[in-house]
Structures are given as C-alpha cells and as structure tokens.
Design brief:
The complex is a heterodimer of chains A (680) and B (218). By secondary structure, chain A is mainly alpha-helical. Chain A has 27 helices and six strands. Among the domains of chain A are: 276 residues, no CATH class; 44 residues, no CATH class; 49 residues. In chain A, the strands form three sheets. Chain A has a two-stranded antiparallel ribbon. A two-stranded antiparallel sheet of chain A has the order 3-4. In chain A, a hairpin with an 8-residue loop joins strand 5 and strand 6. In chain A, helix 2 runs parallel beside helix 4 and helix 3 runs antiparallel to helix 19. The radius of gyration of chain A is 27 Å and the shape is globular. Chain B has 218 residues and is an all-alpha fold. Helices cover 77% and strands 0% of the residues of chain B. In chain B, helix 2 packs parallel to helix 6 and helix 6 packs antiparallel against helix 7. The longest helix of chain B is centred in the N-terminal third of the chain and has 29 residues. The chains are: A mainly alpha (680), B mainly alpha (218). At the A-B interface, helix 27 of A face helix 4 and helix 5 of B.
C-alpha cells in the first residue's frame, strides 16, 4: 500500500530534484549528457508531481502532511502540508515544468561548449525545488527560507549570461526589489508571531487584534505585490525577464510570480481571515491599475520579451482583480460570489502560466533562430519557421482572450464574478466594480492590439534584417513542448469545466463549499454551456458556429464565384515587383495611434534629424520616439537620488575610519542602554 | 570581610582615575601594574576565603595567574614596546586632563544611579563594589577614546578587561575556572598582537598616532 500513496510520490519528486541538481553539477564537463539527464529527471519528477497533485485534488478533503526535518532548534522545522490550494499550484507548476524541460533539451543545445550547462541545470532544478517548497511549506519560517532561496536562485538564473552588463544591472534591480518585498513579508510574519506565538500557517489568528491585522495585511500586500509585479512595484519585471534565458523567463513569468497569488491566498485568506472589506478594495484598485497600465506599456516596447513581461503585469492585474473581488465578497459574507471570483482568479493563474509560458518559449525560439529579440529587426518568420509561428499564434490568441482558447474563459469568469458582485454590492463599491469591468474590457482590447502588433511585425511581412533572413525552424523538442502547451490551452478553452471542477475542489478546503452546481454544465461535456446568474457562454458552440460560418462562406464563394485562376505573387505588390521591407509598418509606427491617444500616460517625445543633401532632399532622415516611464521617473528616481545623496553624506560623517569615533559609538550606546534601563 | 573588599574596590577605582590623569606612557604602565596588583590581592583574599569555606582552589590559581600575567609579564612586554618606539609623552588629548577626570566623576555618579535602579541584585553583594567595578569598565573605554596613541589604546583595553574581571569576581565569587582561563588566553593573545602591531605601525608611518589609520579606509 505504501508505494501507492500520493505523499510518497511527492517525496520521490523532491528527492529526484535534489539528486538531479547534484548530478547536473557533477556532469558539467559533459554538456550534452548533462542536458539530457537533467531534463529527463525533471520531466519524470514533475510528471509524478502532477499525478500526485491531481490525485490529491480529486481524492479527498484531507491534507497530506510531510516532515522533512525535525530539529531541536526552536522554529526550525521543515514541515510540508499539501491541501487543495497547494495541490492546484503544484499542478500548475508541474504542467509548465514538463513543457519547459522538454523545450530546454533543444534550447540549451546552443550553450554547448560556450557556457557551463551543469551549473545552469543545478540552478534550474534547485529553483523548481524551491518553488515546490514555497507551495507546500506549512510554517512561516520554512516559507520565509524557501521564499528567499527562490529569490536568490532566480537571481542567479537572471544573471546567468552575466557577461552583458545590462543583464547584471537587471539582476541587481531584481534582487533589490525582491529583497525589499521580502523585508515587508518578514515584518508581517514577525508581527503576527508576536501575537500568536506560533509560526504555523494553518493555525488560528484570533489572538491578533484588528488594528494589527490591518498592518500585517499591508505588509503582506507590499511583500507579495513586489513579487507579483503589481504596479507600482513592477519595475524589476521588464528588466529581469528579458535578461534571463528564455526557458527560465517562462518559469519566472509562468509560475514564480504566481507564488505571490498563492501567498496572498494562503496568508491573507487562509491565515488572517478576511475581516475588512477595504483589503479587497485595495487589491481591486491595484489590479485595475496594473491591468490597464501593464498592457499600455507593453504596447510601446520593441523587445519581444519586454512586451511579454509587461503583458505579465497586465495579467497579474487581472488575477489580482479577481482576488480582490473575492476578498471583498467574502468580507461581506457573500460566499458564492467570493468563491466564484476565487476560482476565476486561480483559473486565470493557470491559464496565464500556460500561455505566457508558451509565449516566452516562443520568444526563445525566435531568439534561437534569429539571434535578436528586437521586433523591428524581424518579419516574415512565418515562412521560415511555420510550426513555431502557428504555435505562437495560438498563444497570442489565448493571451488576447479570443474564444476557443483558455484566456477567454478566465477573463469571462472574472467579469461574471464582478457582475455578480455588483448585484449584491453596496453603492461605493459598485462604482469601483463597474470601473473594473470597463478596465478589464480596455485591457483586453489593448492586449489584442498589442499581440496583433507582436505577431504581425515579427512573423508576417518581409524580413527586416539579416537576422530574420537566416532564420530556420528550431529543433523539434522545442516545438513539441510548445505544442503540448498550446494543446492544453486549447482544451481548457473548449472544455473549461474540467479545469473549473479541479479548482472548485481545490478551493473546498479553504471555503468549505462548492459552487460547481451553480455553474450549469457537466464534466467533459462542455457543449453544455457554462451558465452563471443567467449569463451563459459555451466556447464550444461559438467555435462550432465560427467553423460553420467559415466553411459556408468558403463554399459559397466557390459556388457563387465560379472557377477562378490561382496566381501567387507578393501581397500588396500590385505588379510593381519592387516591394522592400522598409515599405511595411514598423512596430513603432503601428503603436502610434495608441501613443497619441494615451499621450498623458506615455509622455512621448520625438526627435527628427536630417543629414546631408538639401533641405528638401536630405540623404538620411532619423526619427526616434521615446516614451518616458512615469513610475521610474516620478517615484523611483527621486527616492533613489535622495538615498544616494544621503548615503554618500553619512558615509563620511558616520563611517570616518577614525577608531576613536567607533569607540565613541560603543561608549554612547552603552551609556544610553544603561540610562534606558535605569530611568525608563 | 565585606568592608575590606569595599576598600579594595575603591582603590581599584582610584587607580583608574590615576590612570586617566596620567600623560606619560611609562606611568601608564606603572599604574596598570598597581591596578593589576590590587585585583590580584582581591582574588587572593577571595581565594583563601573559598579554600577555607568550600575547599575550592581555582580562585587562588586565578590569583597566581593574574600575578604572573598582568603584574609581571604584560607590563614588561609593554615596557619593551615602549622602549622600542620614540614616543614618550601623550600630548594631544580630545579634552584636557581635568575635564576628562571630571567626566569620569560624572560617569561614576551615573553608574551609581543606573546600578541601584536594577531590581533583583542579591542582598549579599555590596552595591558599592559593583558600582566601582562597572565604573572601571566604562572609564577604561573612555580612556581608549581619549588617547590618540596606540599604546594608550592597549592600556585602555587592559583596564576595561580588568574592570570586567573584577565585576565578575565581585558578583559571582569567582567564575568557573575554565571561563577565566579562556579570558586570560584571549587577552594575552590580544596584547601580543597589539604589541607587534605598534611596532609595525611605528616602522611604517614613523609615528604611533592612531589617526594615521584613517587613511586605511576605502
């Protein structure tokens, strides 16, 4: 019986990752072998993990408790508890990791002989292991340790290509921001410990007074918000994601920033309990701002991975919006809406992990094939790498929430939960919630525009540079990995109730109820529509109608139009036959209307300079557009400048290098402490 | 017997005032030798008392070690160091000597108030002994601050250590032997290293002025 229990699978998975990371270090001289062995181990381990977590979700309502290390030292106990919430996040992690590991077999092959592959896999596998621990740890000390470990390991992965100075700078920015976040987290944990005298995450928080709970909530929000990349704490994200190797940025964007969602649910909803409605409202506001501004900034970028990074900010905004609605509804005691919003939020977390992971892998493929990440230098890749292009198109549709894909389901459910909570809500909040619906719509539309630009500029048209000309299809394993992800995206889109049922069961442990009956439709038979408060949708039906319409119109054309002659020549050529790549839209040009409309946000500045020739016939014209980032300029830069000036000043007054000054500090400290002891 | 210890502790405190008022390095070493001798006497009396009452010999051994180490060996070592460098008289203080001595008086008063405010000090320990010995600690630290030459810092450090030792002895009737032994070895190492360092500083910079170390910072 022992071997069949799920906790053994999880222990085995942890053991495999641990051994695998050490083997990877040992094999660093044999890059090819190391590549295959490491990815093989991580695929097997995560497959076990996926199986165990599905079984845990489906199997029952009791939790698995594991203990890795018991020591006599106070508080140092590495204990793991896997309930439904942990299991669903473990499932997301393992689904993505299986694909990313498959992808890495091809992607890392370009590193042979150039970089230390063994070190890479050591960091990669330890990083995944640390995330498993984050999702399962059951006491706050252990959580804090693995959270910090996760941050450090991902930092080393970000600066893995450390010979380029911008990568090192991105890494430094990342580590500074994440440490600031972790500091807030630590403050929150310590305050709650000071009242409860326990670090147990599953314990009771009754001993904490209401005022302190508010403070703790703010600390957790700042701490997890930094990791989530919520605006205005997002600034590390667009630097760190492009710097990391693509398979790592897929993991970072796909799952690492989701640890913040897990943390918010576990610490705030699970541990603190939702006592005040304004907690949720604050999260809603942050979510709205992140969703709209994130995608708006994505529109302005020309680096593929920076576009994707800003799009992650947007999607985290949508997830936070759902979470905020859930928190507010639960604080008002509206269990149904609260759970619907929670499910929507977790579902979008799952979806975003899948399609954003896929998009980052796609960006990796483009970089692998062309050697550049600048979309102004790409173009025409659909002819060179058709399979990758098709898969990236699938993910782009998913992220723009177009119907047969999963992105739509998450956003639809979030919207439904907002509508439902408008029906039950109070006046002030209703205005905010309606604003939330509008913001969600705007973000969706902008995301669609952004990904039209992303896909159109980089994959369609004519090659804009040598980089794009020499592109070839990437190794098969990379396309297989992306194909699996696309397939999962599509199947969740068509059969959403499978995913919703899983998440519903997973959230049972937290809320103690199930809303599956409220959503009509059944398991695997999703041509039944999803229905909630008389709003219904069936993506299967929509897909069927779409297919029928397209087939019918093609048929009609064929029948009505009669026989036609097929000719093949360059699109828009019109017999001119001298089209070149400079006649196409540039990425900057494409986003110009948006830039003009949202001028107040981007504050664009443009510069045109001509050179040579006469005034009317210059030889070269240079046109550059800059949009300044408001948050960096008006929030971070002043703080940074102040801190730098202050620390420079104090460096010479406090740290003089004079031994007498140092002795005086000790002396004064002793005197003050004695005075404190005796007179206060 | 308690009054004898009271007198001795006052004398130890007095010796640290004398030390503060000195400006010749030769007399620093002499004063330190006297202070250590007083501590050895305290340890000796306490040791004999403990042999008679409880049969413990360790405090007497500590007394012998103090005589060997602090009364004979370390002062001689410092004397040799002092002969090796050209510097004889301390000239520049942060404040002049009367002000320094007045500050030390203020310190003792402050510590009196501070120590008497502590609740739970057991009745059988005379508060005055504790006040005096803690004062020696802080005056030692203050001595280190007020002197600019390296040798002054070493003396200040040793005085501080004496103060801690006396405090421990008064408060606990002799610490565990192993702890005392550890402290002695630490101190011996520190003094030897610092003695060597003074030579090196003197060689390198032609002075033993500690301010020269400011240049070392990054």
């Amino acid at each position: 019986m022992g071997i069949l229990q799920f906790d053994n699978y999880i222990q085995l998975c942890i053991l495999l990752f641990f051994i695998g990371s050490i083997i990877a270090l040992g094999l660093n001289k044999k890059a090819r072998l190391c590549n295959y062995v490491s990815n093989g181990i991580s695929i097997i381990a995560t497959a076990l993990l996926a199986f165990a977590s599905i079984m845990q979700i489906m199997g029952g309502k009791d939790v698995i408790k594991l203990s890795l290390l018991k020591s006599t030292l106070p508080f140092i106990r590495l204990e793991m508890t896997i309930d439904g919430l942990s299991a669903i996040f473990l499932l997301i992690l393992s689904l993505l990791t299986i694909c990313v590991s498959t992808y890495s077999i091809g992607y890392i092959s370009s590193y042979y002989g150039k970089r230390n592959v063994g070190l890479f896999y050591f960091l990669y596998m330890s990083f995944i292991l640390s995330m498993i621990f984050v999702f399962t740890s059951s006491n706050a000390v252990f959580f804090y340790i693995v959270w910090e470990g996760m941050a450090l390991l991902s930092y080393f992965l970000v600066i893995y290509e450390s010979e380029r100075s911008e990568n090192r700078q991105a890494g430094t920015l990342y580590i500074v921001m994440t440490h600031i976040g972790t500091a807030f987290l630590l403050i929150g944990i310590m305050i709650s410990y000071s009242y409860t005298n326990s670090f147990d995450l599953f314990g009771s928080s009754d001993a904490i007074p209401a005022g302190a709970k508010n403070v703790i909530f703010i600390m957790y929000l700042l701490g997890f918000g930094t990791k989530a990349g919520a605006i205005p704490l997002h600034i590390w994200l667009p630097y760190a994601h492009p710097a990391a190797p693509s398979n790592v940025s897929a993991l970072m964007s796909g799952i690492m920033i989701k640890t913040a969602v897990y943390g918010l649910i576990r610490f705030v909803m699970g541990f603190l309990g939702l006592q005040e409605a304004w907690w949720g409202i604050l999260i809603i506001i942050i979510g709205i701002v992140s969703a709209v501004l994130g995608v708006a900034y994505a529109m302005m970028e020309t680096d593929i991975k920076r576009i994707l990074a800003y799009s992650s900010v947007e999607n985290m905004g949508i997830i936070l919006l759902g979470l905020g609605v859930s928190f507010t509804a639960l604080a008002y005691g509206n269990l149904l809406v609260g759970q619907l919003a929670l499910i929507a939020s977790i579902l979008h977390t799952l979806n975003h992990a899948l399609f954003k992971g896929g998009l980052f892998l796609g960006a990796g493929s483009v970089h692998y094939a062309t050697g550049t990440k600048d979309i102004e230098k790409l173009g025409g890749l659909i002819k060179k790498m058709p399979i990758s292009a098709l898969l990236v198109l699938c993910f782009s549709l998913a992220v723009s929430s177009i119907v047969p894909f999963n992105g739509f389901i998450g956003e639809w459910l979030t919207m439904q939960s907002i509508f439902a909570s408008v029906a039950h809500g109070k006046h002030g909040i209703n205005i905010l919630l309606i604003l939330g619906v509008a913001a969600l719509g705007l973000a969706g539309a902008l995301a669609a525009a952004c990904f039209v630009r992303f896909f159109g500029i980089s994959f369609l048209g004519i090659e804009r540079s040598e980089h794009a000309l020499k592109a070839e299809e990437v190794p098969r394993s990379m396309n297989i990995a992306m194909g699996i992800l696309a397939l999962i995206c599509l199947s969740i889109g068509i059969f959403p109730l499978v995913a919703i049922k899983l998440i519903d069961r997973a959230s049972y442990g937290l809320l103690g109820s199930s809303i599956l009956d409220q959503i009509q439709g059944g398991f695997l038979v999703s041509w039944y529509s999803m229905e909630f408060t008389s709003n219904r949708i069936s993506s299967f039906e929509i897909l069927a109608v779409l297919v029928v319409i397209i087939l019918l119109s093609l048929l009609a054309l064929r029948v009505l139009g009669g026989k036609y002659i097929e000719r093949r020549y360059g699109t828009w050529d019109c017999g001119f036959e001298a089209l070149n790549s400079r006649m196409q839209y540039t990425a900057t040009g494409f986003s110009k209307p948006i830039r003009i409309i949202f001028r107040i946000l981007f504050r664009p500045s443009r510069k045109r300079s001509t050179k040579g020739g006469t005034a009317y016939y210059p030889e070269t014209i240079e046109y550059t557009v800059d949009s300044e980032s408001v948050f960096e300029k008006y929030i971070y830069k002043p703080v940074f400048v102040r801190a730098r000036i202050w620390s420079r000043r104090t460096k010479f007054t406090v740290q003089t290098g004079n031994i007498h000054n140092y002795l005086t500090y000790i002396f004064i400290t002793v005197i003050v402490l004695m005075a404190y002891n005796s007179f206060i | 017997m308690s009054s004898l210890f009271d007198i001795l502790s006052v004398m130890i405190l007095l010796s640290s005032f004398v030390l503060m008022a000195n400006k010749r390095i030769k007399s620093y070493i002499k004063t330190f030798r006297i202070q250590s001798l007083l501590i050895a006497i305290v340890a000796g009396i306490l040791g004999i008392q403990l042999i008679i009452n409880e049969g413990r010999v360790d405090v007497l051994i500590v007394c012998i070690i103090i005589v060997l180490l602090k009364v004979i060996y370390i002062p001689n070592l410092l004397r040799r160091t002092y002969l090796g460098v050209e510097h004889r008289v301390e000239k520049d203080f942060i404040w002049n000597i009367p002000i320094l001595v007045l500050i030390c008086c203020g310190l003792v008063v402050f510590i009196y108030f501070s120590i008497t405010a502590i609740e739970g000090i057991s009745e059988d320990i005379s508060t005055i002994q504790l006040v005096n010995s803690v004062s020696v600690v802080l005056i030692g630290l203050f001595f280190m601050i007020s002197r600019k030459k390296a040798i002054g810092l070493i003396i200040g450090f040793l005085e501080l250590e004496n103060g801690i030792f006396v405090t421990a002895m008064f408060a606990t009737d002799g610490m565990p032997f192993i702890v005392d032994l550890g402290i002695f070895i630490d101190m011996l190492t520190a003094v030897m290293i610092m003695g060597v360092m003074v030579f090196r500083i003197s060689d390198k910079f032609d002075t033993i002025n500690i301010d020269e170390l400011n240049k070392l910072k990054g």
